Amino acid sequence: MDSNQNPSDPPPPTTTSLPPLTPRTIGRLKPPSKIAPMSVKPLSFTPKGDQNVDPDQLLTAEDFKVHTVPQKRKTEAPPPTSRNTRLKTDSSSSSSIYSGSVTARSTRTTTVTRNPPTRASTTRAPTKPTTTTTTTRSTTLKSKPSTMAKPVSKPAKPTPKDSDEPVKKKRPAWDVKGRLQDLEEYHHQTQSQLLDSQSQIANMTDELSRSRSTIDELIQFRQTLENQVHVKEAENSTFAQQVTELRAELLGVEKKYKDEIALLISRHAREIEEREGEIGRLKKVQEGLDGELRIAKEENITLRSTISTQSALSVSLESECRANKLLLEQTESTLRDRETRIQTIEQQLDASRAAVQALEAKVREEETVRRRLHNTIQELKGNIRVFCRVRPPLDAEKSEKPDEVLSHISFAEGDEQVIELRQAVESASGQKTVEKTYPFSFDRVFPPTTTQPQVFEEISQLVQSALDGYNVCIFAYGQTGSGKTFTMEGPSHALDDPDTMGMIPRAVHQIFDTATTLEHKGWTYEMEAQYLEIYNETIRDLIGGKEGKHEIKHLGSTTVVTDVVTVKVETPTQVHEVLRKASHNRAVAATNCNERSSRSHSVFTLRLKGTNPLTSESSSGTLNLIDLAGSERLSSSGSTGDRLRETQAINKSLSCLGDVISALSSGDKHVPYRNSRLTYLLQNSLGGNSKTLMFVNVSPLSGSFGETLCSLRFATKVNSCMIGSAKRVK
Ligand SMILES: Nc1ncnc2c1ncn2[C@@H]1O[C@H](COP(=O)(O)OP(=O)(O)OP(=O)(O)O)[C@@H](O)[C@H]1O
Question: SUPFAM superfamilies under this entry (predicted)?
């Protein structure tokens, strides 16, 4: 009994019944089977000082109720949202159910109180003396009174005022015997209560030990449940992780499928468009076909009518056919006769073919003979020939110096080989002026009216010799401005003008034309071109544009100049390109060297290699077309310094050319080719098999009389080198 408690003022019981245990709750918790539901054995209380304890007053299990006082937690737990939480709550509640108030860790405080023994207080009260105190005992299963329930009820202490029992009178002091009697009686009661109490204590001790073992088992069971909770929590976290992973995977898959679906949708949209387009096209085709079908049906109708017409015709045709069969038989017999005749004709044709082949062979032989004869004629004409050409006066010359134009030159009528210069000189006495004439005769004299094609006609035979395997050299010699470049190349602005183009492009055209013609006779040609310039005894490549150390080398009958560009040409156009490039390079040099073009020799070389597998012939010829430097005399040029050196170099090379030609004509053993670059370059083209033609170009102006006379004299010297080919009229 709590000493602080007033027995007359029992506290109101805060008894709360536990929620009933449902089979579901029990099944989930699975308590150990050996744990029996908690029971409290009947306790018997003997109130202090009460000797006569009624057995009915003994406490039974029914007198106890489990009171649960919910303790407010510091922090309210969140409402259960998951299985774990639910489990935890269940576990907690189960813990409270099984352990009740016996564990300090319980979240609820459970008190076990005894119902007030109303029977004892009502039925036994009259038998008990007023001094007897009915004790209400509060029992807790654990010794912690702070958390345990306090006694909830207590019988009211009977007061003498309220009691109906007779109150014992206090014995007088002198009643020693009576008082002794009372003491003995009290002693007996006390003895017997003591014995009862001892036996009850023993029972309670047993009960306590059983309760402890039950508590241990409950603790163990709680531990097991906690372990299960941990396991479930671990599983739960694993599940949560798996759920997260699955969600991520699901997102990835969803995205992937979304993309695929989008792709499929766009593809399907495209396909639908294509299909629609296809359907459109097919519809058009169908429309076209429908149209065709209509036409075909119409045609069909027409044809049916035609067939019916034709059927009628057929009958008449059949009769015609019979007639024709007869005709055919006659024709077949005619045909057989004709076949016989055709065979005869074919035999005659074979014979003719053989004759043609024989004739072609003869033509080839004759071509060979023609070549031989042609070159014999060329040789008879002379290996060095000289053509004189007088250029027409320029418009400016005609207007500025009309008196000077052609006043000193005359041509013999009917004789195309004679030219005569006239000069008025004083007589020996000096009293009168007489006209002195200088007649010259050359292989051909071209007056100013002669056109380029007419000039070329005269040299075309010579060009042909190059294709036949001869080395051909064509020079243009004369003073500056006499028309050398015009003769050899033509006007610089119209290299391929058929009316004005010069000897070089014309020669190239003829060579290509003749080579094409000769292909029918079995000849094929390879051609290559080079274009050089000799200025002050220095060689410059007019195609490659290099000036400097070019050396001339003679390898047998072939002349090679080191480090110059040689272009393989297969068409006249390619040759024109070469000429254009050379003309450009020459013009560039001219701006640097002041009228250099007239102070240098330009040499265009075309090498021709021909083969004829049919006749097993081959040829190797060279065509050199040379525009020589102006031939002004030193005295008349009045040159000094560089110009003097140029003139000296020009005169030297021109005089060397004359010396070489002279030595060749006189059959000298030593020919001074090496005396100048020009003659050394042309070594293989001067003499031997070579054929040389010199144009001597003459100015129409009388002011150039002296230069013209010199040029004609030089040309005459060259011309006279050949036996019987030059004539000089004195
Ligand atoms: N047969 C011709 N018909 C028309 N014009 C011509 C003829 N010959 C020359 N000429 C003209 O005469 C001028 C001088 O001719 P060209 O330049 O050919 O002389 P050149 O002797 O080559 O001079 P250079 O030595 O300076 O080169 C040019 O304007 C040219 O067009």
Answer: P-loop containing nucleoside triphosphate hydrolases
